[in-house]
Every structure is written in C-alpha cells, then in structure tokens.
Design a protein that fits this description.
Blueprint lengths: L1 E2 L5 E2 L28 H19 L4 E2 L2 E2 L2 E3 L4 E4 L2 E3 L4 H22 L2 H5 L2 H18 L2 H9 L4 H30 L1 H9 L6 H21 L2 H6 L1 H9 L6 E4 L1 H4 L21 H4 L20 H12 L7 E4 L1 H6 L7 H23 L3 E7 L6 E3 L3 E12 L5 E9 L3 E4 L4 E3 L3 E12 L7 E10 L2 E11 L3 H16 L1
Antiparallel strand pairs: 1-2, 3-4, 5-6, 6-7, 8-9, 10-12, 11-12, 12-16, 13-15, 13-17, 14-16, 17-18
Bound molecules: iron/sulfur cluster (2 copies).
C-alpha cells in the first residue's frame, strides 16, 4: 500500500495524474453525484437559502430612492450600505481590496476552502439550485445516468426540455439580478417595462449574462471550480498541514476493508463502501487526501457519518480536521504564518476603519488666492480673497455656507450662495473681512466653519494677511508728519 499526499495510505496513486472528470480516453466524464443527505447538508441548505434571499432581495432595498448596494463600475460609482463612493475614494476601495485579499489568505490558511463549500455563488447555485433541479426533473443519480445513456425518446425529450427550460429561467433571473446590482433596480424596471429597443445596451447585457450562466450551469458545471477558479488553484500554496480541511482520518480508517458478517473485524473503520465517492460533485475520492478538486461541500462527511451510524462506529471518519490534527491529534496552532497574516490584517483593518470614520460627505479646501495681498475697505476693514473647492460625495446637491468662527469678522461669497452639485467638485471665491482692530499681526490665524445647509460639518484653519493696527497708525502719522514738513 502506498502513501497518499497527506501521509495516509491509499490503494493506488493514479489520482495524482488524472482528473475525476476526465475519462481514460481524455473525454469529459459526466458526473451524476448521489444526492447528499445529513446534518451538514441541511445546514448548507439553510445557509444557501439565506444567501439567495439576500442576493435576490438586496437590489430592492433602497434608502432615500438610492440603492443600498450598487456596483456601477462603468460610471465609476459604488454604493455600499447606502453610502456612495466615487473615483475620489479610490484609495479606500484599493485598501479594502488589499484587506479583503489578506483576509481571504488568512482565512484559507486556517480554515481551508470553507468559503467554497458554504458561500461561493458557484457552489450555492450549482449544488443548491441546478443540481436540485436535476434530481427533481430527472430523478436520482442512477436515473440521471440512465437517461443520459438512453436514446432520444419521448420521455427523454420531455425531461430534458423541462429541465433546460427551468435552467434558462433561472439563468435569466440570475442575469437580471446581477444587472440590478450594476445599474440599479430602477433602470432594470425600465428595461422590463419598455420595449428592448429603448434600452438596447441593457437588453444585450441581460441576454449575454443569461447565456453565460446557462452555459456554466448546464454544461461547464464543476469544471468552473476545477479548471478555472483562481482561488482553487491557490490552495496548493495557501494550505499547510495545520489548515482545517475536509479530511479522511486514515489513522482510524486504514487498512480499509469490506464488512463481512460473522467475522471479527481486524481492519480499520473504513468499510470501503464508496459512498463518500458516490456523493462527490467533483468526482474524487477524499480518502486519497486533500485534492485540488475538493470544494469542501461536506457531502462526503454526511454520507460517511450515515455509514458509521449503520455499523455502530463513531461519526467523523471524514470530518473537518487538519493533517496534523489527524496524525498527531493537535488542534488549532498559532503558526508563524498565521501570526504574520493576523498582524498585517489587524493593521490594515485599523487603518481602513480610521479612514472610513474620518471620511466626510463634503471635502472642502479653503486656500488664500495665490499672489493676492489684502485689500483695505472703507470703515477700517481689511479683506483677503480665498479659493474654495467643495467635493460633494452625497447623492443630493448641497447648499454650502461658510462663516467665520474666529476671530470676529465676516465671510462674503463672491457670486451669491454656493450649491455643491451631487458627486461633483464646485469651485468659488470668498472674501474674508476683518475689522482693522482685530488684526494684531501680519498673519492672523482664522477658523472658517463649513455648513451643509445649517449643519456645521467641518472647521478649516487658515491665515489672514493684514497690516497691524499700530504699524498702520504709525505709517499714517509718518505720512501726515511728512506732509507738514
Ligand atoms: S463512506 Fe466512509 S466508510 Fe465508506 S468508503 Fe468512504 S470513508 Fe470509507
Ligand atoms: S471530497 Fe467531499 S467535500 Fe470534497 S468535493 Fe467531494 S464530497 Fe465535497
């Protein structure tokens, strides 16, 4: 008996050089996995139902006529939890992506492909929607295989037509939902209610997405996870012997051997019933160790637990465990890798949180106009000119007021009241006027309050240039004295 990838014995090593979905002749091998049943599958159904409810329901949630979530990359508009992010927030989006990647790496190092089995949209749709349609229309795995092998007759034509019609309807629904996340539910309503010619771009997108989804779920299927998914490909570098994966306990299970009545059992707990292989949607034998094809769907755990119940052995011959957990009985360990990723992730989350907290709905800059000195006004007043730039990140136009908070003085807006248009930058000029009595040095610190309508949202500190009163009086005296002379 040879050793498997995880150190466990396996009957042969051919699985290393072949894929379960490819036949010896190099052709596609269609899989007809047995329907899984058990506690993990029931839990996955509940989680999938919740995820599907969220996926299909969220586009209908609006806050003040704006979507709760929107991913309109064409117009560079992103709405998360009702907050709009634009091109000016690129640094936040970039940092969020980096934080997300580190989180996924850390999560995978510790928990393996838990995401694939429970949350990944491909797995949820494939196993919880389209695979269920297969069982509903064509019957169990054996009936499906028989139907595929049979010649085209009335039953086959009817069953295949019904199945693919339901597939097409679901693909269309998914395409519409995804489009709602991109353009918003209102645009989608228009598309549904108006003739296609009025929205030819959106119509083409819906049809295109529908065709792609139909092709993925009717033909491509598990190949998406095995051949295409980059996350699956990364498992080889992310997983180590301490990562928790769906694993076969070879210490307990080997040597495997069939159950024989009336004979004392000397082998391990695996009775070589192949139930774990029959339910596998990617066509692998988990007893060969962790493999790229395993999407952590838990079907083999449930089927093996049912067998263990039947032969009165403890459950968990296949379970969530690490390779070291099985061979050495160790639990979770803080390895240098896990500590390193956790430290980086903590720093990134802290920085992101601070940036999000400090993010204001209006970004205002007030700078003294370059090259301009002060002006002397009647009634002993001095003015400075400032450039004002307002970036409005909100959905609505916002009236902007500026008031001098300190010292006493006035702000005069050049050209009338300011209104910052939604999702745009507004530029204007203001005059700050101080009484001569309030100026005690050449550069006086001032604080300008920025009000969105009447709400103070930001305080800006800058400086005001003006002649010092004593100096000015002295200059005047000099002037007058010089006149007498
Ligand atoms: S289901 Fe369990 S007992 Fe049966 S072959 Fe798989 S590991 Fe062995
Ligand atoms: S090996 Fe088990 S967990 Fe992995 S894909 Fe197959 S059935 Fe699912």
């Amino acid at each position: 008996m040879t050793s498997s990838a995880e150190g466990g014995p396996g009957p042969e090593e051919s699985f290393r050089d072949s894929l379960g979905i490819v036949s010896q002749e190099g052709k596609r091998r269609w899989l007809f996995p047995k329907a899984p049943r058990g506690r993990f599958h029931r839990a996955r159904i509940a989680v999938s139902a919740l995820l599907l409810l969220i996926l299909f329901g969220v586009p209908f949630i609006t806050i003040g006529n704006h979507p709760f979530f929107l991913f309109n990359f064409l117009q560079r508009k992103l709405i998360l939890f009702g907050t709009v992010f634009g091109p000016h927030d690129f640094y936040l989006v970039g940092l969020s992506v980096i934080t997300g990647i580190i989180f996924i790496i850390l999560f995978t190092v510790v928990f393996g492909r838990l995401f694939c089995g429970w949350i990944c949209p491909q797995t949820v749709f494939m196993e919880m929607v389209f695979r269920k349609i297969d069982y509903f229309v064509e019957g169990d795995h054996r009936a499906q295989a028989r139907l595929r092998a049979s010649s085209w007759n009335g039953t086959k034509i009817v069953r295949k037509s019904v199945k693919y019609l339901i597939y097409a309807a679901f693909s269309f629904l998914i395409a519409n939902t995804l489009l709602a996340y991109v353009v918003g539910i209102e645009e989608l309503r228009k598309l549904v209610s108006e003739p296609p010619a009025n929205n030819i771009g959106l119509f083409t997108a819906v049809v295109g997405f529908s065709v792609v989804f139909y092709w993925i779920f009717s033909w491509f299927r598990e190949q998406a996870c095995i051949l295409v998914c980059p996350y699956g490909r990364l498992q080889g570098v992310l997983l180590d012997r301490n990562s928790i994966v769906i694993a076969y306990d070879h210490v307990r299970g080997e040597p495997r051997g069939k159950m024989r009545r009336d004979q004392e059992r000397t082998e391990g707990d695996c009775i070589d019933c192949h139930q774990c292989v029959e339910v596998c949607p990617t066509g692998i034998d988990i007893r060969n160790g962790t493999q790229l094809e395993c999407v952590n769907c838990t079907a083999c755990i449930d089927s093996c637990d049912a067998i263990m119940d039947g032969i009165k052995k403890p459950r968990g011959l296949i379970r969530y465990a690490s390779a070291n957990g099985i061979t050495q009985g160790t639990g979770f360990r803080w390895t240098a890798r896990v500590i390193g990723y956790t430290a980086v992730l903590t720093v990134l989350i802290a920085v992101l949180t601070i940036l999000l907290i400090r993010r204001t709905p209006l970004d205002v800059t007030v700078l003294r106009t370059p090259g301009m000195m002060f002006q002397e006004l009647p009634d002993d007043r001095i003015s400075n000119v400032y450039d004002v730039k307002v970036l409005n990140k909100m959905f609505n136009d916002v009236p902007v007021n500026l008031r001098l908070l300190a010292p006493a003085g006035e702000v005069e807006i050049v050209g009338g009241p300011l209104v910052a248009p939604s999702q745009a930058v507004m530029q204007s000029k203001i005059l700050v006027v101080l009484p001569q009595d309030g100026i005690h040095r050449m550069s006086t610190p001032i604080t300008i309050g920025i009000f969105a309508d009447t709400v103070l949202i930001q305080k800006i500190s800058t400086t005001f240039l003006g002649p010092v009163k004593q100096q000015k009086d002295h200059d005047r005296e000099q002037e007058h004295g010089g006149g007498h002379d």
